[in-house]
Amino acid sequence: MTPYPYQIEGAKFLAARKRGGLLDGCRVGKTIQGVVACDLIGARSVLVVCPGLARSVWANTFDSASLMGLPRATVWDVKDPIEPNGVTIISMDNARNLAIRDRIMHHRWDVMIVDEQHFLKTPTSKRTQMVLSRDGFASVAGRIWFLTATPVMKDPSDLFTMLVTVGAFKGTHEDFLNRYCNWYMGDHGPVVTGAKNVEELQRLMAPHFLRRTWEDVKHQVTDKPVPAPIWEEIDIVPKEGDYDPSDLRDIGFLENEKKVKRIIENFLAGDAKPLPRNSDAARVRLAHALVKAKPLAGYITERLAKWEWDKVVIFFHHFQPSELLMHYLLPFKPRRINGKTPDAKRDQHIREFTDKPAKRVLLVQDNIARQAIDLSAANRLVFFELDWIDDNNHQAAMRIQGPRQTRQPYIYVSRLIGSMDEIIARAAARRARMSAQILDSNKPLKLPSMF
């Protein structure tokens, strides 16, 4: 695997810093830059902390791109060995395991790479403490490099742990909130309502972090880069027999609840927050998905049967509706990745979907596979359910884009006509497109719209 010129530039940027990071956008290829940077400094002990799905990506990239020939250990289970004289790759969840932690802490690492750093944005969380605290992995790492395309998932406070670790900010979490956020203390912690001193914050970041986007670099990768994705809607008008009548009654009842209406109004106004699992708003979203399942499967089946689509990725959120989709798409032997899928099985499903023409349908739960995977074997992605957080949808949409995509990408948003799902889908898709335009502009360190 040979790095592109911009990837060598990014590797040199990391190698020149004991603590810093790459904030390159999706599909730019941060993994190979991290590997090349390790080679540039002659690192002989490397610790990679990454999402579970990314472990195979890191292992394959070290094997194919590093010139050092270091031994490698990929930790899948607590019993798996580490490699203190080479490369050790563990997941974020591994980092919380005390037995694995103890073995990591017994050694001095030339470099610790934290991939998808935004999973460690909460300073009080156990995995953040295990990795970045003075008593965590950071204390035994000579260098710390962060990689993430989404340094700000919701608000400026997401930057705190990263900026403290690189030494750019010296104060407490509350000091950071007071300096760069408009906020108040809610029942469950700080609630940020806006940003302030933004130019100062960006100056604080600039010496430590580099950001390029796919739009910035794609012409170094190919002479014929594919155009930006085309977004289309799939309008669902269910027929009698497509759904359980109780689901439709639930929709009618719940959509008229005052609390649900208020949450929808807040969402449309731009105040998108994760829905509590058992809230009425979450229940109506589940009911929407249950009613959409059969007609959406029919739409997808028709295009697969006619070979208008060769492969398709379907992003879902709720498990029960995904079961229905699996049932209705059974002739195509679909595979599914969700929170209960073992890591090794997830990796197998992705490899088979990528390498085998007969594997044409892959269902992916949105909250576990928005980052660190390449699904560009397909150029069709269907949002069965959209996330309420704009950037999450943008991240998911990027899974079928990037250097390996040679065809026009299409993103489809399913929406239940005549319901709040139609309104939500229209607004969420519009904001996902807007998020892509903001994050993938040609301005380095451009931060989300609330800035």
TrEMBL record:
Organism: Pannonibacter tanglangensis
Residue intervals of the Helicase C-terminal domain: 299-451
Domain named Helicase ATP-binding: residues: 11-169
Gene3D superfamilies (UniProt xref): P-loop containing nucleotide triphosphate hydrolases (3.40.50.300), Tandem AAA-ATPase domain (3.40.50.10810)
UniProt xrefs under PANTHER family: DNA ANNEALING HELICASE AND ENDONUCLEASE ZRANB3 FAMILY MEMBER, SWI_SNF-RELATED MATRIX-ASSOCIATED ACTIN-DEPENDENT REGULATOR OF CHROMATIN SUBFAMILY A-LIKE PROTEIN 1
Keywords: Hydrolase
Cross-referenced SUPFAM superfamilies: P-loop containing nucleoside triphosphate hydrolases
Protein name: Uncharacterized protein
Transmembrane parts of this sequence: none
InterPro entries with a match to the protein in the record: Helicase_ATP-bd (IPR014001), Helicase_C-like (IPR001650), P-loop_NTPase (IPR027417), SNF2-like_sf (IPR038718), SNF2/RAD54-like_C (IPR049730), SNF2_N (IPR000330)
CDD domains reported in the protein's UniProt record: SF2_C_SNF
